[in-house]
Amino acid sequence: MSNSTITVRLSEHDIQLIDKNITEGRYTSRSDVIRTSIRQTLRESQLADERLKLLAELAKSKNLTQDRINKDVRTVRRKIYKEEYTDD
Predict the structure, then answer these.
(1) Which percentage of the chain shows pLDDT scores above 70?
(2) Does 3 reside within a domain?
(3) In terms of Cα–Cα distance, which of 34, 28, 26 is closest to 5?
(4) Domain count, the chain
(5) Which of 41, 42, 60, 66 has its CA 20 to 30 A from that of 85?
(6) By C-alpha distance, which of 23, 43, 22 is closest to 32?
(7) Would you say residue 51 lies in a domain?
(8) Are the beta carbons of 82 and 88 closer than 8 angstroms?
(9) Residue 66 pLDDT more than 90?
(10) Residue 88 exposure: Cα atoms within 13 Å on the Cβ side
(11) pLDDT of res. 52
(12) Model confidence pLDDT, tens digit, residues 23-61
C-alpha cells in the first residue's frame, strides 16, 4: 500500500504537545503521532458503530421502541426529581 501526502493545519499549542510526545519517546515523528491518532480515532468510530448496531438489535429483540425508551426516561427523571426536591 502506497502512502499519500496531505496537509494538516494545527495550532501552535497542538504542535507543541506533539513535539513533547516525540521528545519523551512516545512517538518517532509528527507523522507517527498523526497516523496513530487517526487510526485510533477510526477504530473507536468503528467500535462505536458496532456497539450501536448491537444495542439496536437488542432493543428490537426486546420490543423496545424509541417512544417506550423516552417514556421510561421521563419516569426515571420524575422519580429522581421527586427524591431530590420534595419533602415527602
Answers:
(1) 99
(2) no
(3) 34
(4) 1
(5) 66
(6) 22
(7) yes
(8) yes
(9) no
(10) 8
(11) 92
(12) 999 999 999 999 999 999 999 999 999 999 999 899 889
Range of the domain at 44: 12-85
Q: Which helix (H) or strand (E) holds 40?
A: helix 30-61
Q: What does the pLDDT read at residue 88?
A: 58
Cα–Cα distance between 33 and 78 in angstroms, integer? 47
3-class secondary structure, 59 = helix
Inside any domain, residue 2: no
The grid coordinates listed for 65 are: 421502541
Contact 24, 15 (CB under 8 A): no
In a domain, 72, yes or no: yes
Q: Which three cell numbers stand for residue 43?
A: 477504530
DSSP 3-state percent helix, strand, coil across the chain (nearest 5):
75, 0, 25
